[in-house]
Amino acid sequence: MHTVSLFPAGALDPVEDRADQALLAIRRLLEAGHPLVVAYSGGKDSSMVAALALHAALEHRAAGGNPLAVVTTGDTLVESPEVAEHYRNELSRMRKFGSRHGIRIITRIVEPAMAATFQVKVLSGRALPSFPGTHGDCSSDLKILPQRAFRRSLFRSLADEGLAEPVTLLGTRFVESTRRNLAMRQRGESAIRPARNQDGDLVLSPVCDWQDDDIWEGIALYGGGARPSYSDFEDMRRIYAHAVGTSCAVVADAILEGAGSRRQGKCGARLGCHVCQMAEDKSLANMIEYDARYAYAAGLQRLNRFVRHTRFDWKRRHWVGRTIRGGFIKIQPDTYHPAMLRELVRYMLQLDYDEQCRAERAGERPKFELLPLDLLIAVDALQSLNGLARPFSVWADWRDIRLRGLRYDIPEVPQIPQSTVPAARFLHVGKEWDDTAAPAEWSGLRDPYLESFTADSSCGPALQATANGRVVWALPTAQQFSVDAEAALLIAEFEVDRLLEAHDAGIAPGQVTASYRWYAQYGCLTLSHAQRAEHDEIARRTAYKDRLGLTLEYDVDQLCARAVSFDCLPPEGRLAWKQAAIPQQSLF
C-alpha cells in the first residue's frame, strides 16, 4: 500500500507530488476526527477528489483509524442519461471499495423537492423552462438548494453520533475561469487547510492548484492501478470523448472547456440536463451522432428542440393572469397554454414508453423515465387544481399510449423568430375570484357531495380553519409538497380503471378540480405548511375561471377579443395597471 511518508521529497514526478500533498492534507482532517464529505458530479475534477479521499481513508484505516466518507451527488431528474448512469455506477464502485477495505463509505443521490422539479414546475403551469435572458433559477432549484438541505441534515445526524464537524471536499480549481478564481479566493479556498464557505461549512479544495493536465495525469495514475482506486475511470473518459464526437477524453475536455465558458446562467455543467434551454448544450447530440449506442436518446433531443423552437410562439402560452387589480386581470402570454402542456405530457409519456420497450428488448434497465408514477400523479393533480386539464387527463394519455396504441411523436417544427411580448389586454372579473359564487357553493378545498355522505361518520375529511377564517380540508402537511409512495402504488394497482371511467364520463359543471380533490381525499398528497390555504385559494380561483370559460383549452383569439386595451380601462383600472402600460422587452 502506498504511504506518503515512504517517499522522500523530490523522488516522485510533479503529479505524484501533488497527489501526495493532497493526501497529506486529507489525512490530517481524518486524524483530527473530521468525517469527509465529497461533493461528486462524475466529472474529472470530482472523480480525482473522490480518488484522493478514498485513498487517504484507506491509509488512515491502515494506520488504525476509523474514517468516514460521505459521497453525495445530485440528480436533477432531467440529467443526461449517460451521466446519470455513470455516477450511479461509480457510487456503487465506491461502496464496494469501502466494503473491500473496511472503510465506512456512505453514498447519497440528492433529488430536488418535487415542486421544484422541471416536470412539476413546468407541467403544472407554474413556470416556464429557464430560457436565456430570464431568471434562470433551475441551477439553484435542482442542484444547490437540495444539496444544501441534505448537508444540513447530514451534519446534524453526524453531530448526534458525537463526530467532529465534517469537511466537504470540493473539485474546484483556480484555472477553471476568471469568475471561479475570484470567487474561490474571496472564500479563501485552499488545498492545505479548510475554509468556511458562505453557508458556514468547512470546505477543502485538494486540487485547487492543479492544471487540466495534472487532473488527467492523476486520473491515469489512479485509474491505471498505480495507486489504490475505486474505479478505472474508463466510463468517465468515454463520456468526455463522445460528448464532442472524438475518441480522446483529453482533447474533448479542451473543447468542452471552451464550450463551458460560453454556457449561460449559473450552471457550470459541461454535459447539461437534456431539457436545458439556458445553453445549447450539444453534448448529447454529439454522442447520438458519434455512436449508435446512444440512439435511445434521440427523442430527448427532439423534445429539447421542440421546446427551444417554440419559445416565441405566443399562441402556446397561457394568457390568463392570476392577479386581480381594479376588478381586471391581465391578458398576456405567461407560462404554457393548457394545450401546450397536454402536448408536453404526451411527448414525455411516449418517450418513457418507447424507452421501456427498447430496454425490455435489450434486456436492460431503461436509461431514463421522465414521468415516473409520483411525478405523473403530481402533474395530474396540479393540472386539475389549476384548471389546465380535465380530471385524470394524464392517466387517459397513459392509457392511450400503452393500451390503445396511439402515438404522440414529437414534431420537428421551425424555430419561431424572437419577438417582443404582445401588448397586454385586460378582462373584467370582479374584485374577488369567487365573488359571483352562490353563498352555499364550496369552491375551494371542500366537497359538499362527499361531506354530506360522511357527515355522521369518521370516514369523511377532517376540517380546519385557515388563518383568514376559511374552513378547508385538514390535509396532511410537511416541509414540502410530496406524493405518498404507498398511496401512489395503490392507485396504480387498484384505482386506474375508476379514474379512467371518471375521465371518459366528461367533466360536470364545477368539477374542473375534481381530480386534485380526489387525490387529496385518497391521502396521496402532502402539502407544505403554507399550501393548505394557498391551494384552497387556487381552487376557488380555478372554479371562478371555469365559470368564465378561462380554463382548459380556451381559444386565445377569442379571449383577446373579450378583453380591452389599457386605454379602454376605467380610471380605477388604469391606475391599478399603470405598470403594464410600459412597453415590455421581456424575452420570456
TrEMBL record:
The keyword Transferase appears for this protein: yes
GO MF terms, alphabetically ordered: transferase activity
Gene3D superfamilies documented for this protein: HUPs
Coiled-coil intervals, chain numbering: none
Keywords per UniProt: Transferase
Keyword Secreted: no
Name of the protein in its database record: 3'-phosphoadenosine 5'-phosphosulfate sulfotransferase (PAPS reductase)/FAD synthetase
